[in-house]
Amino acid sequence: AQSVAQPEDQVNVAEGNPLTVKCTYSVSGNPYLFWYVQYPNRGLQFLLKYITGDNLVKGSYGFEAEFNKSQTSFHLKKPSALVSDSALYFCAVRDLQTGANNLFFGTGTRLTVIP
Amino acid sequence: NAGVTQTPKFQVLKTGQSMTLQCAQDMNHNSMYWYRQDPGMGLRLIYYSASEGTTDKGEVPNGYNVSRLNKREFSLRLESAAPSQTSVYFCASSEFGGLTEAFFGQGTRLTVV
Q1: Are the CB atoms for A107 and A76 separated by under 8 Å?
Q2: What is the mean pLDDT of residues A75-94?
Q3: Which value, in Å, is the radius of gyration of the alpha carbons in chain B?
């Protein structure tokens, strides 16, 4: 069975500092991994994805994520946080082996960037 | 380019009432989805449609039905609403299922009293 864990409900970081939002996954085959962001009263917006290739993936708004197969992790990072990055972040996974035609989402991490 | 459009944005229902949530996408995507979002639960898949003419159950399909009316439209019906169905509902679409990123509508906030 596929699953995604976001171990932190809340992450606080000072503006200008680097940020990390953690994600670990469990799949039976090779994963497709995604990060989405949700601003208040809005739908989710795609940030980046990992399918294959380079383990460091760059996405929108200066975000990047590192795929680590041995640790089954896909942490979201940004070198310098902005107040406008404050939002709810979701990690999601699709398991290629099961062929399931959908994404499984984590429970979300609320990021607050403190001015 | 509107993307994914959901209607209505807000709705209050009494227990036992029925309603249909509408969703339309203008990106010519093959796959469409209905999720519900509850505090501390993340997003859970209710139903999805891999392509026009097909629908499949997701994680939490009980109490819901769907119709893929055509390639653009995917509706979600609550036949007899229950307070447990109070949630925020999101429709999404993607070009090729889980292989490509999904685009989400703005959501429908449903309260069942």
Answers
A1: no
A2: 96
A3: 13
Average confidence score pLDDT of chain B: 93
Residues of B in contact with A34 (CB under 8 A): 101
Across the interface, whether the CB atoms of B43 and A44 are under 8 A apart is answered yes
Chain B CB within 8 Å of residue A46 CB: yes
What is the C-alpha R_g of chain A?
Answer: 14
A71 residue type, one letter = Q
Where in chain A are the domains? 3-114
pLDDT at B80 over 80: yes
Q: Give residue B101's pLDDT.
A: 86
DSSP string, chain A: --EEE---SEEEEETTS-EEE--EEE-SSPEEEEEEEE-TTS-EEEEEEE-SS-SEEE-GGG-EEEEETTTTEEEEEESS--GGG-EEEEEEEEETTTT-SS-EE---EEEEEE-
Q: Is the pLDDT of residue B107 over 60?
A: yes
**The pLDDT value given to residue B18:** 96
CB contact under 8 A, A43 and B42: no
Cβ separation of A106 and B90 shorter than 8 Å? no
User: Token pair for residue B49?
Assistant: 């449609």
Q: Which pLDDT value is given to residue A99?
A: 54
Interface touch B42/A108, C-beta < 8 Å = yes
* A3-114 belongs to CATH 3.40.720.10: no
